[in-house]
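Why run this: before we spend reagent on co-expression, it is cheaper to look at a predicted model of the complex and decide which construct boundaries make sense. The entries below are exactly what would go into the expression plan.
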Amino acid sequence: MIQVSQDSIKKTDGNVASPKGYLAKGVHCGLRYSKKDLGIIISSRPAVSAAVYTQSHFQAAPIKVTQESLKKSAHLQAVIVNSANANACTGEQGLKDAYEMRRQSADMLGIEPELVAVSSTGVIGEYLNMESITKGISLLAETEPAEGDFEEAILTTDTVIKQTCYELTIGGQRVTIGGAAKGSGMIHPNMATMLGFVTTDACIEESALQRALREITDVSFNQITVDGDTSTNDMVLVMANGCAGNERLHEEHEDWPVFKKGLQLACTDLAKQIARDGEGATKLIEVEVNGAKSNLEAQIIAKKIVGSNLVKTAVYGTDANWGRIIVAIGDSMAAVTPEKVEIYLGGQCLFKNNEPQPFSEELAKTYLENSEVKIEVRLQEGDGKGTAWGCDLTYEYVKINASYRT
Amino acid sequence: MIQVSQDSIKKTDGNVASPKGYLAKGVHCGLRYSKKDLGIIISSRPAVSAAVYTQSHFQAAPIKVTQESLKKSAHLQAVIVNSANANACTGEQGLKDAYEMRRQSADMLGIEPELVAVSSTGVIGEYLNMESITKGISLLAETEPAEGDFEEAILTTDTVIKQTCYELTIGGQRVTIGGAAKGSGMIHPNMATMLGFVTTDACIEESALQRALREITDVSFNQITVDGDTSTNDMVLVMANGCAGNERLHEEHEDWPVFKKGLQLACTDLAKQIARDGEGATKLIEVEVNGAKSNLEAQIIAKKIVGSNLVKTAVYGTDANWGRIIVAIGDSMAAVTPEKVEIYLGGQCLFKNNEPQPFSEELAKTYLENSEVKIEVRLQEGDGKGTAWGCDLTYEYVKINASYRT
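The model came back. Tokens follow.
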């Protein structure tokens, strides 16, 4: 956790278009029946940019095209995103389509194609309807920005839009970080993907931005799980256009911790919104592991617990079934001494000294009826800390995922 | 896979008590409301024995006691098993109770305590009711063996008993391998555990038996998954009492491959019965991966696919959703080249050359309506083969696991 004064960071009602010099649009182009399905974020000038991508062997075509754009110069001026179709496992044709989507967007904006990132989410293994995409890009050119349109255009089976905004003070200047995300299952009936788009008007060094994003993704987006699967299209992208007019940030700058903390808060906020909106979910589950040998071991155990079907169904059933938490911890490769492990739920200790502890089942049940549930595990092996977020496993999850593709 | 002539191996209707010199009993002692809850397998003489145990950090008390028994001499003459209570996470008292259970069983049989293995399955974190156990052991002494009683006594939420039997010809002698197992979730509402008990009248060298069991467990019991969790009480035990009168088997014996193949068939048969009876399951899913860099990589990918909630729900919904199989493969650390991967279902090719293949959705749907479904993946990276077994994920699974403990 990065320690900075909370005075220098403030959460606001803003969104991905709130930082200076950005606008965001969304339209319906016909990939979906009636909902918006194509969106774009545009910066008034090239922005220093960084991204992290899915580790899947089957990276989708748009991921490859975006990687190529960023390899050229680490600057982006726009990101075009469609829902309904992931353009994944689509071979040469898919790659051609993603390049074409990039080129048309660049032409529309009068910029170089390498300044455009491409992102897709939706059905795997179907070719993009390029007629709709072409029509949609023309529509985007004519359409005025409106709040929520971009956020809506990138959703698949998500039930709510996800947005965030933080204001920071850096070198006396106000700097804003905004964000939008989508994700409901890590992957869907066929709808794929977790996407995160973060914008900031900060002026910042390229390599510092890339390192910060990678480090922060590991403790935010990478610490959520809905069903344990990794999509072919996952991507988190951050753009920093420098419009705030601050002194250029780098890792030795005295206000670097403030920016990094702000970026972490924005990413964590979006990640939690995704976990809460997991397919069929009724509750956000947060698992905090303290006292591991390392932060990494704490993160792994936290994610293992929050990803356990048995823990997820127990939380759904408001059952303080700590035996299932034990099973998830016991299964990990991390350093664990049964006699030292302690498990807490809603202020009550359930397990300690390798023995069950007396606790009020009634209080525990009442606690588990909250829409946010926190499980705390103390290992007493070292100083490692880690948190993970997930959701309960419900009948609705099975229904969503067992229903036939339409 | 071990290659031997099928003439020398025959499946029969037998069970764990079929090999010469064994008997098995089961009684109701009061740990459960009315069902049988305590069972014992007895050999007429000490049997060379081997076991593999859960890798959980929180190994239950009976696991520790059994390990100690086998460390003394690698011989067992009996195994006592209770259901309803796992005697796990029960500290010093739990260990004392497991030793007492071993001592009472040994006294009843008039043998050394170190010739008895102890096994428990059921609720985690509650102390054993030793009054019931003591009563049950007396009852076992008086009770006559009857088919199915032992198998029933070791069940928790399983819906059917699991048993197997194979007859082999070894050095001209008939050798029998029998087995019983339980397991429905890897762990339950609180009911834990996968247990496997294999008996044989073969005469066999200790170290050869231990090595064969470990190797075979890795491709049978360890390749099934119902919900991805590992219990605190998992154990597979094999006893070989030599009553068949065969020439002592060792790894250089010409009929060693026959015995090993028989043991593998028995373990695989039991493992598949467990997967098929997974909590809430309607179907057995088999995933076969060919052409991996190594057998281990093939096994890992097969288990990852069969353990994916998204694949499991798709099979339940009879949806030939190969994108989800791609996602599960893509996530693995194994060597995978998207362009070389092929996916087959019910004789149809769904994916090849990194592109979707035309196939009949109707035929695929019909195929997925079978009670046994096989998914085949070809990687074309090497000669590695691996198979894994699991089941579909249904509303009933959520119901079983979200219902409050009673």
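The first helix of chain A runs from residue 61 to 73. Residues 187-192 of chain A have pLDDT under 50 and may be disordered. Bring this page to Monday's planning discussion.
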